[in-house]
Write a structure and sequence with these properties.
This protein has a two-stranded antiparallel sheet. By secondary structure, it is mainly alpha-helical. The chain has helices at 3-24, 29-38, 45-53, 61-71, 75-79, 98-106, 120-153, 157-190; strands at residues 87-91, 94-97. The longest helix is centred in the middle third of the chain and has 34 residues, at 120-153. The protein has 2 domains: 3-106, 434 Repressor (Amino-terminal Domain) (Orthogonal Bundle), CATH 1.10.260.40; 120-215.
Length: 216
């Protein structure tokens, strides 16, 4: 396959996904175009129509991102249709499974060894590890709150004691998970990285006392 042929095929795949998700969202071409303009990037009706009908063989990156937002789908789903295509050509003449293509695109392809520090792949891994640490802290906090709330609403003394004991255990997990999150964020800053902003329920993690031994 020539480079031009592959590029046209790639655009056709994206265009088909745009058409599919536009219809699923119940949007007309005119409504999709208006929504793009409302987001700050006018995409004329003719552009969308020409893409969907194959009369246009390329798509601008900015158009691609805005259209994905208008359609309410992750941009990557326009490139890699996991539910409709088992394989894709990620590059000219390089056909692999759609999932493997998506993993390659996002940098999630399994590596035989750890990526060199500060390499693009290692930075991706660091931010993903941060996301996992955030999820762990949020999960343990939620479990602790749920058990304490259940304890406060039950009339059974034995059940209340059981739930309070469970809540205390989850609260210890939550404390340790939050401290680990704070330490991870500190290590990122020491590397010159800027950790993603935490949601309001975890904002306290960045307070100095969170990681202090005195807080135990």
């Amino acid at each position: 396959m020539t480079t031009d042929g592959w590029g046209a095929q790639l655009t056709a795949r994206v265009a088909e996904q745009i058409r599919r998700y536009r219809k699923a969202a119940g949007l007309t071409v005119a409504e999709a175009a208006a929504a793009c303009a409302a987001r700050g990037l006018p995409v004329p009706k003719t552009t969308i129509t020409n893409l969907e009908t194959g009369r246009r063989s390329s798509i601008d990156l900015a158009e691609f991102l805005v259209l994905a937002d208008v359609l309410g789908v992750p941009p990557i789903t326009l490139l890699f249709p996991l539910d409709t295509a088992s394989t894709v050509d990620v590059l000219p003449g390089q056909q692999i499974s759609t999932w493997d293509g998506l993993a390659w695109f996002t940098g999630e392809t399994a590596a035989a060894e750890a990526a060199p520090k500060d390499s693009p792949r290692e930075l991706l891994d660091a931010f993903r590890a941060h996301s996992d640490t955030v999820a762990a802290a949020r999960a343990s906090m939620s479990l602790a709150k749920d058990r304490r709330r259940m304890a406060n609403t039950t009339l059974d003394p034995a059940r209340r004691t059981e739930l309070l004991d469970a809540a205390a255990g989850y609260e210890q997990f939550a404390f340790e998970d939050c401290r680990a999150l704070g330490a991870f964020r500190d290590s990122m800053r020491e590397r010159g990285l800027v950790p993603p902003e935490l949601s309001a329920d975890l904002a306290f993690v960045d307070q100095p006392s969170t990681n202090s031994e005195d807080s135990e």
